[in-house]
Specification:
single chain; 424 residues; alpha/beta; 7-stranded mixed beta sheet; 4-stranded parallel beta sheet; 13 helices; 40% helix; globular; Leu-bd; Peripla_BP_I; ABC transporter substrate-binding protein
Length: 424
């Protein structure tokens, strides 16, 4: 697909990162709340990232790697959210400051970025990449630092500090397989291909597809690739030789474009169903566009930006006003709602007069019905299973805002209801 997002946009975000981080408050106090947590003049206990005037939060994102377009949308939506909260007076008598760090989907860079920003952060409303968060999971938990991953692998479950939003990849794939069986004529004995990234994202997705296939008498034909692989010709040849009747797609947008484009060119005319990270509307103007519009779908717990609800329409209008001409994709509501999750935790923690990390986590874990306008309702009171098991089936649409529309409203498939989700 090529590098997504203009250089100017990335440069602007880099400048924003420097500007915000240069005025970020709080000493680097290390993990947890530290011994210095004390009540300020307003009687509110504070911890790392919280001063008398500011609450510092951090985004560890991807602006230059395989999820550059997603990372840009996420980050801009979150900047918009915090700017609006600040304009309305802030929270708990304090204004938000957002530190942005680009790790380019590189685990080593992500670890270094976390090491830098964690001591001065009250929460992390965006952290892209299952491999990156998995590498830091014990540290994040030990630091009691509320973190919202932009990743949905089951390896991220089981941590009180890490809030996986919506469905996990395996649940989405179970719902996807049942969609294929109900709507696309897949029956017992058929073969289904599954193209997936090595690592947590792909393996978690594969767990779901294999579970559903076993229940329905299907056979999964696996093709595992690296995130750096670009040409899917060999994988298409393998699927075609195996005679698959459909293909599940748990890779990045660039690999999705190659897969569906090559498949159609080679005469493999089958339905494709992607994980939520497999599609980007920036694919539609590429040579893969016709194939995506023909018979590609993807599953997600997130409501598409084309949804006609007042909250989504207001977000879209505000985003377009702040970032005119920028592409609007699923990263916009995803980033916005993740910022809202952190903000709601801060508000509840303020009510309890405890903005320490423990206070923020305790406040967050009391929320049992978050969401609705930007995704399926979520329960945050537990952390050893997905916050939701309900997925939309979405279809690319060139005319739709965000490049996708709802094909099937969010629901929990019969198979997903009783699926024993692995943890950690």
């Amino acid at each position: 697909m090529g590098k997504i997002g203009t250089r100017a946009g990335v440069a602007a975000l880099a400048l924003l990162s420097l500007a915000v981080s240069s005025c970020a408050s709080g000493k680097a106090t290390g993990g947890g709340d530290g011994a210095g947590a004390a009540a300020g003049g307003d009687g509110v206990k504070t911890g790392p990232g919280v001063s008398a005037t500011t609450i510092t939060v951090s985004a560890l994102t991807d602006l230059t790697g395989p999820y550059a377009s997603f990372g840009k949308s996420l980050t801009q939506a979150q900047q918009l959210y915090f700017d609006q909260v600040n304009a309305a007076g802030g929270v708990c008598g304090r204004k938000y400051e957002l530190i942005v760090r680009d790790h380019g989907y590189d685990t080593q860079k992500a670890v270094a970025a976390y090491t830098e920003v964690a001591p001065k952060s009250a929460a992390i409303p965006q952290f892209i990449g299952s491999p990156m968060i998995t590498a830091l999971k014990q540290r994040i938990d030990g630091d009691k630092l509320l973190t919202i991953p932009m990743a949905w692998a089951t390896t991220l479950l089981g941590s009180r500090a890490i809030q996986v939003t919506g469905t996990t990849y395996d649940v989405d794939m179970i719902n996807a397989v049942e969609f294929l069986a109900k709507e696309k004529g897949i029956t017992s004995g058929d073969k289904i291909g599954h193209l997936y990234f090595e690592g947590d994202y792909g393996e978690s997705s594969l767990n779901g597809s294999k579970y559903a296939a076993d229940k329905l008498g299907l056979q999964i034909v696996e093709q595992k690739i690296k995130a750096t692989d670009q040409d899917m010709s060999a994988q298409v040849a393998a699927f075609k030789a195996a005679g698959v009747k459909a293909v599940l797609v748990s890779v990045g947008p660039r690999q999705t474009a190659s897969l569906v484009g090559v498949s159609l060119a080679k005469g493999m005319d089958v339905p494709f169903v992607g994980s939520n990270s497999a599609y980007s509307p920036q694919l539609l103007p590429t040579p893969a566009g016709p194939a995506l519009l023909k018979d590609f779908y993807y599953v997600s717990a997130g409501t598409p930006v084309s949804a006609q609800n007042p909250s989504m329409q207001r977000l879209v209008a505000d985003y377009q006003a702040k970032y005119p001409g920028e592409t609007i994709d699923s990263g916009v509501p995803t980033g916005w709602s993740a910022a809202m999750i952190v903000d709601e935790a801060m508000k509840k923690a303020c009510e309890a007069k405890d903005l320490t990390r423990e206070g923020v986590l305790t406040a967050h874990r009391t929320q049992s019905g978050f969401g609705g306008d930007f995704g399926t309702p979520m329960d945050f009171t537990f952390f050893d299973k997905p916050a939701s098991r309900s997925s939309y089936v979405l279809k690319p649409d060139k005319a739709a805002l965000g490049g996708a529309v709802v094909l099937r409203e969010a629901e929990v498939s019969e198979l997903a209801k009783d699926y024993p989700v692995p943890v950690g």
